[in-house]
Design goal:
This protein is about 55% helix and about 15% strand.
Length: about 375
């Protein structure tokens, strides 16, 4: 019976995770996934030069271009692509940018095309939103044309431009809608469900105050819901630095809440170390707040370090709780711990992306761990 209790949740969680990852894999920034139509050209080979330099200094590169990994320590970079206008087109031409960090503006033969959101501080955060532009027919020339992509990011060296597509706007539009469905639209549903479960778990905790597990569940989901605003808010109401503070503060808080939640699930305790963990939590938030308020770019390095500490503590609590759960826990606890374990792995993967250890050729995956947790919470 115990083996069934362990194996069944393992199979369920792995199967659901595999299905979610396979579905999200459609967000991969590769031409074979974006479109299979011959009328659409997916651009890989392009020229690049930093803002302030002359276009004659452009260097040939291959997309995707991850500034963190390619040593581009700027806040603004220009890209150039030359193409032959088709002799016959069914409707207007368009450009689909599946992934950019933070925002992009296009120029066709020197004519600026309105950007989707602000290009000056605070820059629009379109790093989770695919961008679709329509090229003005009046600016097209017979024969050779020049398309420039101006990418602005913050802080310096954190920009990104993935492969993009050029072709009939009517063909690119359904591709854009598909990316929106599997990206921002999917995230909105998950955030809404997270808020519903936050309220429910908080209500249960108010009725059963001695069972603090429900309180930590509510806290974890609440902080994650605040963090998930990054999927929905493009025109941020504050500066890019303060928005980064919000994302790091909520990420760290969600991790530290999970640290205490896992202890309750595994019926373990670090004793006096828990008080130190609470003090560390408060110290990290105060520290990154102070550096954000000072406007220092060092804030990003400190915030990344604090985020790494939170992930490490959650992983340590998870590893320490596994033996006790193996011996004593129920079917529900097995499911919850497995889903938490997968969520920790996905968060660690996203941190490697954000810190530049992996090329950002696909969307962040941490959001895939949330449906698993919500499903287990619903079952419980």
């Amino acid at each position: 019976m115990k083996q069934v209790q362990i194996v069944l949740p393992l199979v369920i969680v792995i199967a659901v995770t595999a299905a979610l990852v396979a579905w999200r894999d459609n967000l991969a920034i590769e031409s074979r996934i974006i479109t299979g139509d011959d009328a659409v050209l997916c651009v890989r080979d392009i020229e690049r030069w930093p803002a302030g330099a002359e276009p004659s200094a452009a260097q040939a590169i291959t997309l995707p271009d991850d500034w963190l990994r390619n040593g581009v320590n700027h806040t603004e970079v220009h890209y150039r692509y030359r193409f032959e206008a088709p002799r016959e087109t069914a409707g207007a031409l368009g450009v689909l940018l599946p992934a950019v960090n933070l925002n992009a503006q296009l120029y066709l033969n020197g004519r600026a095309i309105d950007a989707i959101g602000g290009m000056s501080e605070p820059v629009a955060h379109n790093n989770f939103t695919p961008l679709l532009f329509q090229l003005p027919a009046a600016a097209l020339r017979a024969g050779s044309n020049e398309l420039r992509v101006r990418v602005v990011s913050f802080p310096p060296g954190h920009g990104f431009l993935g492969e993009f597509c050029l072709g009939p706007h009517a063909l690119l539009e359904p591709m854009h809608d598909k990316l929106m469905l599997q990206g921002p639209d999917f995230a909105r549903v998950i955030t809404l469900l997270s808020l519903v479960f936050t309220a429910f778990m908080g209500f249960v905790w108010t009725l059963r105050r001695s069972e603090t597990m429900y309180g930590w569940m509510a806290a974890t989901l609440f902080f994650w819901s605040l963090h998930s605003l990054k999927y929905h808010v493009s025109e941020v109401p504050i500066s890019s630095l303060y928005w980064a503070w919000h994302l790091f503060a909520t990420s760290i808080s969600a991790g530290m809440s999970s640290f205490f939640l896992i202890q309750k699930l595994g019926e373990t305790s670090f004793g006096p170390w828990n008080r130190r963990a609470l003090m560390l939590w408060a110290f990290m938030i105060v520290l990154i707040t102070a550096f954000a308020a000072s406007g220092s770019i060092v804030f990003y390095t400190l915030a990344q370090a604090c985020s790494t500490i939170a992930v490490f503590l959650v992983s340590f609590a998870f590893a320490r709780s596994l033996p006790l759960i193996w011996r004593h826990s129920t079917f529900e606890a097995y499911c919850l711990m497995l889903s938490l374990g997968i969520a920790i792995v996905l968060v660690a993967y996203d941190n490697l992306l954000v810190f530049g250890f992996l090329t950002r050729t696909s969307g962040q995956l941490a959001i895939l761990g949330v449906p698993l947790l919500l499903g287990v919470f619903a079952y419980m």
